[in-house]
Specification:
mainly beta, Immunoglobulin-like, 7 domains, six-stranded mixed beta sheet, 1 helix, signal, Ig-like_bact, DUF4165, DUF4165 domain-containing protein
């Protein structure tokens, strides 16, 4: 029977030299205060461990790492030194594979700022390099105060239980969590939660945080609650997170939220000539569109369902401007009568609404025709003011600062002519004679609008017949100005790495008279000229504002950035943000091998140098190596030769002798302005001091076989090995064997097993003074045929002759 032979490809790399290396804190592992395990990058800055903390560092092989943690007072909290980092220390954290070490710090880190000092030591314990990173531990949840409400009509109502609000939709209503703060790490995000009466969550959504007012709001609640007429109790609560991951909840507020009007119907019109009766009132006839009406003022009757009237239901309708209510306690409809001039619909005077809002159901929106002999009411056609600067114009005017001062000299009304005198009142009086259409009120002294003041000539007016029984729709002037409540920029922030400018501002008297005083523009200037950059954020919370601008597309140049805020009446305020020379270009990265472009074969990673060129300070983001015969994907450690020149630490990788097995080295660097540069090179590879032996042939039997002379049938051999001093290597040695992961089988070398993809330390003895390897080797299993490549690494040769 013929036995197939086994071929074992053997590689020996003698990696003895040592160089300085940048250790890097890759992650901080911990279980947070909510019981969730985290592997957080150092860039997170803020952490909230509940117990032990594991600090993971990357470093080069053949190094020791010493980790020291000090508090803000420079007191040492913990210090630990690792073993010599070897191929067993290949770690994978957050999808990054690298050589490194992990230190566990027992439950010692309380809230406060700490320094993590990473020291790299060589094999002799000599300090090679030191880096210091700052972190903040925050174990305290954010603070959040009570929920407060600004609610039209108050928060009480019919049959409302204690500590429960009755409120609802109105454009000016507000519901806010107050007194929100976090001293150490700051507020990260806030959610509002609305639950139904059965405890189920109806909506949970993120809300904006007003850092100036220390509050968060759901506005007037629109979109936050189901459709309901104050029959279900909801719960509103705010969930506050800080940047370390701590969470706090506001006290829950129970509330009725009324966003349903319910119904009320126009059912009857009064006719003095009718004997009909509706709602128990004689003279009312059923309303029919287009019917004639024989009185002016007109009497209208509305029917409201019993369970939608405020005397019987919490969310019931409340009439305004009515002349009579016909109520009952029998569950029958309620009737409401209005008496107003023909076509009078102004909701300030006649309406039907529930307690949740000012407006409501439209009253007198009928389709009626006045009988021929019925006297018509006054009808206003227009109003105007005579101004000192522009003459006669609308009595609704927005006056900017550059137009001041202005005087209002007179007011005029234009109306339909009537066969009777019409009396106009508006900060004075005038009379429109019978058959005429206008009159003028002269103001002596004039109404003044001066710089340094704020105001709104928002005065009402009436147009009536002599006894006041007939009148037109009301009218209000609205001439507003502001040169007193000036906008304020409370703070600015410039983040070079993201190129984001953040501006916080405040507008005193925000909301004055229909929100006429408000911020209407925010932008950036540089050297006196407006920058064409996108504004990416505009947030408002009452009188506080937050703006953000993206400067990432700015061309290179010197900039002196000012934030500019404009109030609606062209009041401006400016605050300087930053002066800088902008760098819009990514770092330029070149990778060379012994001073020449990388191409073909690289003999030793140490021959590779990374050069970075950029107009601002840059740093390495990461260096990765992918490919090779075993399809590696590993993050590499590195060391700084000078500010812009980097050397890469030697990893434990297999030689790549053919193009199909090439490695790709990728370097990423980031400058102070957040620009990221990337450069990659591809190459074949051999270690810089290695010996490639011929393939060892062994029988496919998983045990040690001896020849006639009692020597092993398969042996790893080498030429004479020398130490750094030049002496022949002798005596006890230690090697590291790594078998490729794609090997057909594992191997047993010097009676120690190493499986595919595994790395093991193997002791051996260079007997005598030959200085040559003679290590028995055989497969770890009986197989028909196959191939296994491995790397034999002697980190430091020793000799009995070295002293």
């Amino acid at each position: 029977m013929m036995i197939n032979k086994k071929k074992l490809g053997i590689l020996i790399a003698l990696l003895i030299s040592s160089t300085a290396v940048n250790a890097e804190v890759i992650s901080i592992g911990y279980t947070d205060q909510q019981g969730e395990h985290k592997e957080a990058a150092l860039s997170q800055k803020f952490f909230n461990p509940n117990g032990d903390v594991t600090i993971t560092m990357s470093a080069g092989l053949d190094r020791r790492m010493r980790m020291t943690i000090k508090d803000a007072g420079d007191l040492t909290i913990a210090t630990k030194t690792s073993h010599v980092i070897n191929t067993h220390d290949r770690l994978t954290v957050n999808n990054q594979t690298f050589y490194g070490v992990q230190f566990t710090v027992s439950n010692k880190l309380q809230s406060g700022e700490y320094s993590i000092i990473s020291e790299t030591l060589d094999l002799k314990g000599t300090l090679i390099s030191t880096t210091t990173d700052k972190i903040t531990i925050d174990l305290t949840p954010p603070k959040v105060g009570p929920i407060v409400a600004q609610s039209y009509g108050g928060l009480g109502g019919k049959d409302v239980p204690p500590n429960v609000w009755y409120t609802g939709y109105w454009e000016d209503n507000k519901y806010r969590a107050t007194e929100i703060s976090d001293e150490l790490s700051g507020i990260s995000e806030i959610f509002a939660i609305v639950k139904r009466e059965d405890g189920s969550v109806y909506k949970r959504s993120k809300v904006n945080y007003d850092s100036q007012g220390k509050m968060a709001s759901i506005g007037n609640g629109s979109g936050w609650f189901p459709s309901n007429n104050a029959t279900e109790i909801y719960t509103l609560q705010f969930e506050v997170h800080d940047n370390a991951g701590n969470t706090e909840y506001s006290l829950a507020q129970k509330m009725y939220y009324d966003n349903v009007n319910g119904s009320a119907s126009l059912v009857a019109i009064y006719n003095p000539n009718s004997d009909q009766s509706i709602g128990g009132v004689k003279g009312f006839e059923t309303y029919k569109p287009g019917m004639k009406v024989f009185t002016n003022p007109v009497k209208t009757m509305y029917q409201v369902p019993y369970d939608n009237f405020h005397t019987h239901a919490r969310g019931g309708l409340i009439p305004k401007g009515h002349s009579q209510i016909i109520d009952n306690d029998k569950g029958e409809p309620v009737y409401v009568i209005y008496t107003d001039p023909y076509g009078f619909t102004d909701g300030n005077y006649v309406s039907m609404h529930d307690k949740r809002q000012y407006g409501g159901i439209y009253i007198n929106g009928y389709n009626l025709k006045l009988a021929e002999d019925v006297v018509k009411q006054p009808v206003r056609l227009g109003n105007s003011y005579e101004y000192s600067d522009i003459g006669w114009s609308s009595w609704s005017r927005h006056i900017n600062v550059n137009e001041m001062p202005v005087k209002i000299l007179a007011s005029k009304i234009i109306a339909q002519s009537r066969p009777y005198e019409q009396f106009f009142e508006h900060m004075g009086n005038c009379t429109i004679p019978a058959g005429e259409t206008s009159c003028v009120i002269t103001y002596d002294p004039p109404k003044e609008i001066n710089k340094g003041t704020i105001g709104n000539w928002h005065y009402g007016s009436t147009l009536k017949n002599k006894d006041g029984s007939l009148f037109s729709q009301p009218g209000w002037a609205s001439v507003h100005w502001n040169n007193s409540a000036l906008p304020i920029i409370t703070s600015t922030e410039w983040e070079p790495s993201t190129k984001i400018v953040t501006v916080l501002a405040n507008q005193p008297s925000r909301g004055y008279y229909f929100d006429s005083v408000r911020i209407t523009d925010a932008y950036l200037n540089s050297n006196g000229k407006k920058l064409n950059v996108p504004r990416t954020k505009w947030e408002e919370n009452s009188d506080n504002y937050k703006f953000a601008f993206d400067l990432s597309k700015l061309p290179d140049g010197v900039y002196d950035i000012d934030a500019v805020i404009m109030e609606a009446h062209r009041n401006f305020t400016t605050k300087n943000v930053a002066k800088f020379t902008n760098d819009a270009e990514a770092p330029q990265i070149t990778i060379d091998y012994n001073g020449q472009p990388v191409k073909g074969m690289v003999h030793g990673i140490n021959g590779l140098t990374v050069n970075i060129a950029d107009m601002s300070e840059s740093r390495i983001l990461d260096i990765t190596l992918k490919g090779g015969p075993s399809k590696d994907n590993i993050y590499l450690a590195y060391r700084n030769i000078d500010k812009n020149k980097i050397k890469i630490e030697q990893p434990r990788i297999f030689p790549a002798m053919i193009e199909s097995q090439q490695y790709t080295l990728t370097v990423r660097a980031k400058d102070a302005f957040g620009n990221i540069g990337t450069s990659s090179v591809t190459f074949m590879y051999t270690p810089d001091n290695w010996i490639k032996l011929k393939a060892v042939t062994a029988l496919p039997i998983s045990r040690k076989l001896l020849l006639k002379n009692d020597k092993p049938a398969a042996v790893i051999t080498s030429s004479v090995l020398h130490t750094d001093s030049g002496n022949i290597a002798t005596g006890p040695q230690e090697g590291i064997v790594t078998v490729r992961s794609d090997a057909s089988f594992g191997v047993i070398i010097n009676e120690q097993h190493v499986g595919p993809g595994e790395t093991e330390h193997i002791g051996f003895n260079l007997q005598g003074d030959s200085g040559k390897l003679e290590l028995p080797i055989y497969p770890d299993s009986d197989v028909k045929d196959g191939h296994a490549e491995f790397m034999f690494d002697v980190q430091q040769l020793r000799s009995l002759y070295d002293k």
